[in-house]
Amino acid sequence: MKITKICCIGAGYVGGPTMAVIAQKCPHIQVTVVDLNADRIAAWNDENVDNIPIYEPGLSAVVAEARGRNLFFSTAVEKAIDEAQLIFISVNTPTKTYGKGKGMAADLKYIELCARQIAQVAKDNKIVVEKSTLPVRTAEAIKNILDHTGNGVQFQILSNPEFLAEGTAVDDLLQPDRILIGGDTTPEGKEAIQALVEVYSNWVPTDKILTTNVWSSELSKLTANAFLAQRISSINALSELCEKTGADVNEVARAIGMDSRIGSKFLKSSVGFGGSCFQKDILNLVYIAKSYGLNEVADYWEQVIIMNDHQKRRFSAKIVQTLYNTVASKKITFLGWAFKKDTNDTRESAAIYVADDLINEQAQIAVYDPKVSPAKVLADLDYLETRSHDANVAQVHSFATPYEACKGAHAIAILTEWDEFTRYDWQQIYDGMQKPAFLFDGRNLLNRSELEAIGFVYRGIGA
User: What angle do CA 98, 101, 106 make, to 5 degrees?
Assistant: First the structure.
């Protein structure tokens, strides 16, 4: 099958950038991204391409090139499904907050709604591609829904997990380490796999396109994120030991990272990992293991999450302890709210949980992040449901510049590794702070000796 029309359900952090790059690299294919959120679609269609809803370096240029040519953003979901030969499902799969599997299992209600809508609308054969991160054997559930429509339409279900790192998503799409496509081993399944392979072959070398059965593809996504998160929790566990023994975690990381069997990536100690995938995928893996009675396997992976939560609590406790065991009514400035640099995504950001701890200690939190809006900061705290919205408004204030945010502060906490933080006039910031001026570097981003020479009391991670 030669693909000429693609539909993607979901205009979020995965669907938007992925479809933009496919459209850019495949001008002969019409790509339509649909979403029920009219405001989000309007933002994707904004005349000023810098106003698109997702910030990723290079994304606005890709969208500008393809939008209106063969890339379209629409709320007309049924029309796009009807016309497409290949349909990507790229909707949210949050961790369940209710019922069986609460706090661990993936909530698949949005996936099921997509499958039912596809089944209702489709009049001819379709290839349906799982792009969202899903638990193993979700494809089976999707196929059951699609195959029982009674309208004679044939569906092939493929798993094509994303391996994007936010902040580098466009580069990851343009030059991927690998493209993974899983499908049935039947002749029809192999034909569907080949159709998607041909789409990616427009710019990805074929030796980087891996094909597997659908179950291996689904499990590979969860496992890749679990391994990466495990490395972060491992170095963070050592950071606490380094602080007690007088070792320097940066030196330890450099030493072990030079071992070719280990490598240097994901060995940077910090206040903890965030983002939409790591925690969700590990909890999903834990739930799957428990559901099969593999309790030791579940315990092993759950410890990665336990260590990450501990690192965040340890950071907030260090702030309180260093500020003479009280932060009540003290101004603590957060530089950074996004979970990592070069993205406006705040999901599971360490900043949210550190702020929540300090608000419980009656601190006044000042926030500056170059890409996160004040409304988003408050929404993140409200989502925790640990206090009323009015209480959050009273204790958390966002500022338009870092210098305003830091003025009069008792302490500064670096929560995101934005490059611009290294370029600030730290003498000016120091001069405007309460003394002693404390700086807690949750990303080990800044130059300790330079800051201490200015007069800061500097506290990093793991040294």
Answer: 85
pLDDT average, residue stretch 40-64: 96
Residue 179 · residue 200 · CB < 8 Å: yes
Residue pair 136/218 in contact (Cβ under 8 Å)? The answer is yes
As annotated, the active-site residues are: 277
pLDDT digits (tens, 9 = 90+) for 166-196: 899 999 999 999 999 999 999 999 999 999 9
Which residues lie closer than 8 Å to 246 by C-beta, 6 or more apart? none
> What integer pLDDT is reported at residue 1 of this predicted model?
80
Higher pLDDT residue, 315 or 214?
315
pLDDT in tens, 81-98: 999 999 999 988 777 788
Measure the CA dihedral 411/414/418/423, to 10°.
Answer: 40
Structure tokens at 396: 């958390």
